[in-house]
Amino acid sequence: xxxxxxxxxxxxxxxxxxxxxxxxxxxxxxxxxxxxxxxxxxxxxxxxxxxxxxxxxxxxxxxxxxxxxxxxxxxxxxxxxxxxxxxxxxxxxxxxxxxxxxxxxxxxxxxxxxxxxxxxxxxxxxxxxxxxxxxxxxxxxxxxxxxxxxxxxxxxxxxxxxxxxxxxxxxxxxxxxxxxxxxxxxxxxxxxxxxxxxxxxxxxxxxxxxxxxxxxxxxxxxxxxxxxxxxxxxxxxxxxxxxxxxxxxxxxxxxxxxxxxxxxxxxxxxxxxxxxxxxxxxxxxxxxxxxxxxxxxxxxxxxxxxxxxxxxxxxxxxxxxxxxxxxxxxxxxxxxxxxxxxxxxxxxxxxxxxxxxxxxxxxxxxxxxxxxxxxxxxxxxxxxxxxxxxxxxxxxxxxxxxxxxxxxxxxxxxxxxxxxxxxxxxxxxxxxxxxxxxxxxxxxxxxxxxxxxxxxxxxxxxxxxxxxxxx
Length: 471
Known about the structure:
471 residues, mainly alpha, two-stranded antiparallel sheet, disordered N terminus, disordered C terminus
């Protein structure tokens, strides 16, 4: 996107309403919920889906990876395009594509069609996620903007962690096809609310940087494909070439946008020490979470003979505790150093993950539940304080790009987590879930180390509106 942007069309004043646009916020949060849920919803049903369509477990994981690749590749380009065509138009287009592709995914039982539908779901999800924050800003008066952002952060965080529980409920009364079909009525309802209540935003006259967007998308696609290749077949020439291609795209993108005041890939923000460390901490934490939420269903199904419904119930304590900790950790981050809370939370998360590798021979529900509670406490203690540190490290005029990097860090971590599970099955087909959990423990400890480095520098003061974002 060009650094010199001129607003065109009918003037659109900033939102000065004294009341929150509750109906519009409902539409935006519902859309964010279904998009985020789709990142984790089918994890619980992967063993069932793999058996139903006759593919291996490592192949079925592509249903997760394909969706994540599409979202990651297009998130930043769509954020730039949304400024030009309008945030509401981008949001509506993404929601229509997401709903239609969900219908296709729910009606087919062939791997090829499922993968194609999942890719289109990812494209629609990227369009929605790239502009939803900007639209939320139009729904809240300036004095309560932090509250709106905090609500969105809570919805996104809980939606991902609640995926296994929601999937278990759906699978208890229906089959895996309904995991996709449930998005259709929700999507249609969101479209109705959006057209009627979500406000429009200004548009930019600047040209869309097609070449830069192509480089950005190609870089992330090749990166994820290379990592997946390393996980599936080890160090092969194809995976090496894909990694080299990703590095080449990165170098070309840096050269192409070196004179941009606001580059599509916000490298200017990563020059800030706390922002870079917070982003790396976030990636590591979501690698751990992504690894767990893909590996645990296979562990419970293979070693405990758990049904999909029981698998969801076994994982439920994690999101339930995260929901409680979201409020507690947000309040604590205003009283204590957020870096200390993040570091402590990730250490607790590592302990909880490690305990899952030492389940007794005869497992009761309580044996798994208390371990999942520990994981939920650790992840919940990390999440809000890290978000606070990440957003507060960015200058005011770059908070939009910072929000995109927040989402990108989360999605990259979740994608790397799925890749780690494939790697674990490649290394040990018989003990794959346990190897994956061990990788998750290592990622949590690396994240704790990155978080601890931030403690060597005093945390800058945080404005009130940013502080409320962590809640």
